[in-house]
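Q: I have two molecules that I believe assemble together. Could you output structure tokens for the complex as a whole instead of separate predictions?
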Amino acid sequence: MDMAATTSQGRTHRKPGYLKRGDRRFAYLILAPAMAAFLVMVAWPFVDAMTMSFYSYTVYDPEPVFIGLDNFKAILTDPYVLGSWVTTAIFVAGTTLLTMFLGLSWALLMYQDFKGRAVFRTMTLLPWILPSTVSAFIWAWMLNGRYGIVNVLMMNVGAIDSPVQFLSNDVGAMVAVILTRTWISIPLFMSFFLAGLQGMDFQQIEAARIDGAGNLRIVRRLILPHLKPVFLVTGALGMIGNLQQFDIIFALTGGGPVRATSVLSIEVYKQAFQNWSLGMASAIGVLWVFTLMPIVIFYLRSLFRED
Amino acid sequence: MFELRTWKEKLGFFGLLAVIAFFLFFPVYWALSSAFKANGELYRMDPTFIPHQPYLGHFISALTEGPLLLQLGNSLLTSTASALLNAVLAALAGYSFAKFDYPAKKPLMLLILSAQMFPFGVLLISIYPMLQSVGLLDTRIGLTVSYIVFALPVSTYMMYSYFKQVPNELIEAAHVDGASNFKIFRRIVMPISLPAFITVALYAFMWSWNDLLYSMTLITSDDKRTVGPGLLLRYINENNADWGGAMAASFLVAAPIILVFSVLQRQFIGGVTSGAVK
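A: Yes, here they are, computed for all two components at once.
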């Protein structure tokens, strides 16, 4: 730091930690490409969707027709569309909680030193790097209503008399998409928790052990409190990701049977690219953004707290 | 960390290990095993866990009877191009945020990061007509550019937090030697930041590689399709699904990325977690 203050060729170094102020032009210049990409591909499409939500624009309308709040009125009075918020909530809550529980458990197991741990750790990444369609295929085949291994095993041990048609009944389809999405997300969550565990204070654990604390007590009293910030961040990230999830659900169930797994992403896709009703799709999208907003704000605040 | 002295403690630990490991890895094993079974062995109520008569027919038909290789090429092309584009944009922006001071910095940074608020599905409603109007609908270039949406915000933040750790003295010293800002960035900062750059590129690659929604919507001709929608359209239709073929094709498609990750995984996972948590 001392060096930085004296070597700026005559210009003063005003703020420690940063470079000379005269370099502002360069800073703007290298920011410009990312900013341009952001404006064209994110900001403008969003503003456009906001605007479009006040219009009726379908294949029957040659030009968008301004209809004020009619799209929103239609959404708020349509029990089916409103139902997709409930469906989304079930999917997001189920997936996020299950992933956090299994991700944390797996991280705790992988933190313990045992023979073969390295192999397990390496393999853990596998579900995450498979393309979504491939993961959906694997689970659709496992849960197949006739020859799926899940049905076959359950029938063989006598748990069920006839195969369960997972993907063609409401509850089964929801279970299937939650399981598949959880399966894919565990590796990433495991890494977050594992990173959090690296900062554990071992002396504290040793001291608790001398006081006679068992493994479960150490998890409850020491490890879980230590991981609290990780819980908050992974919880927020998990919800943001799951609230947007489309690929797995579309590939597995297409939102069905009927509308049983029709979450917001599926609803918007169907309105926009199957019904070509862009105004309506945008209106649902705008409400979807407001659903996501509080979680993203929470996440960004926790990200910037240290800065 | 845990003490596993009594048989109860051991049972608890290894029992939980076995259950979660089964959930994580058995599906992959089962898919692989299914890919090597002829239909007679595949569809039966007393399944064989190891194929009795290993059969390569599904792999051969997956490779020869459809555009799988072509679509795999499309996926690799669009994912690699968008990953590089994304990593370059993120590195430049991240450097600007990390090492310079200007009034609009924090708002601009928040603006880029807030992009996570806008679901990809919503942006797509406007990206579709936008690409159409400039003639980029149903082109791989259009798809590549659209993929920026997925990873740019988080990538920028990942590069930013990496550059923050690069000591200012290093850059100041080069200034004294008369090097320009751009030269310092290219010759000094980038070479030592290569691990972060690769991590960010891989992160972006994963997003496009996994994508189904954009590719399915923005590409309409079969020969330009990527593997996600390609597999879906080919193997699954309501009445008869070719499960053996689907499993074989799945592994052919997954092989290249499994290879890349088995080499780079340790570095990658550390990079992604440190970027998102802190």
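A: One point stands out. Chain A touches chain B through 111 residues (CB under 8 Å).
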